[in-house]
């Protein structure tokens, strides 16, 4: 498994923005696509989106499309999730993934 460390979570008001980062401690960073998943309290894991190995193509869940942007910097072994226009229902623990590996999450709270 690849060790992944996500950070950047915090508390934000509805309509606000946050950027999450995820650092991968591996020599095989570009070997796999990467993604984000999230889990809200009392709910199942939800796929947020994925990005290909080169960072040239990403796909998103309908619930975040147009508001969230996934990117990666292969030179820095880092994955990003830019979240704009946050809604109450975006509150969750966010996890980054690399292939089949999943890191520990970072908490995003959205409240007024």
Describe the structure.
The mean pLDDT is about 95. This protein has strands at about 5, 10, 20-25, 35-40, 45-50, 60, 70-75, 80-85, 90-100, 100, 105-110. The chain is about 0% helix and about 50% strand. The radius of gyration is 13 Å and the shape is globular. Strands 2, 4, 5, 6, 9, 10 and 11 form a seven-stranded mixed sheet that branches. The protein has a four-stranded antiparallel sheet with strand order 1-3-8-7, with no helix packed on it. It has no helices and eleven strands. The chain has about 110 residues and is an all-beta fold.
Question: Fraction of residues in helices?
Answer: under 10%
Name the overall outline: globular
Residue stretches low in confidence (pLDDT < 50, at least 5 long) are none
Distance between the termini: 38 Å
Query: Which structural class best describes the helix and strand composition?
Result: mainly beta
Report mean pLDDT, rounded to a whole number: 96
Discrete helix count = 0
Oligomer: single chain
- Please indicate the percent range of residues in DSSP E strands (runs of 2 or more): over 45%
**Main β-sheet: number of strands, strand sense, barrel status?**
7 strands, mixed
Let me know the number of strands: 11
Radius of gyration, CA atoms, in whole angstroms: 13 Å
SSE arrangement, N to C? EEEEEEEEEEE
Question: Brief overview, please?
Answer:
The protein is an all-beta fold. The chain has strands at 3-7, 10-12, 18-25, 34-39, 45-51, 58-60, 68-73, 78-83, 92-98, 101-102, 106-110.
């Amino acid at each position: 498994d690849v060790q992944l460390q996500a950070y950047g979570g915090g508390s934000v008001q509805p309509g606000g923005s946050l950027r999450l980062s995820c650092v991968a401690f591996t020599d095989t960073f570009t070997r796999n696509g990467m993604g984000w998943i999230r889990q809200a309290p009392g709910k199942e894991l939800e796929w947020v989106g994925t990005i290909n190995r080169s960072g040239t193509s990403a796909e998103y869940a309908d619930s975040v499309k147009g508001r969230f942007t996934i990117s990666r910097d292969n030179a820095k072994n880092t994955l990003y999730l830019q979240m704009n226009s946050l809604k109450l229902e975006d509150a969750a623990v966010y996890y980054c993934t690399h292939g089949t590996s999943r890191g520990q999450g970072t908490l995003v709270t959205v409240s007024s």
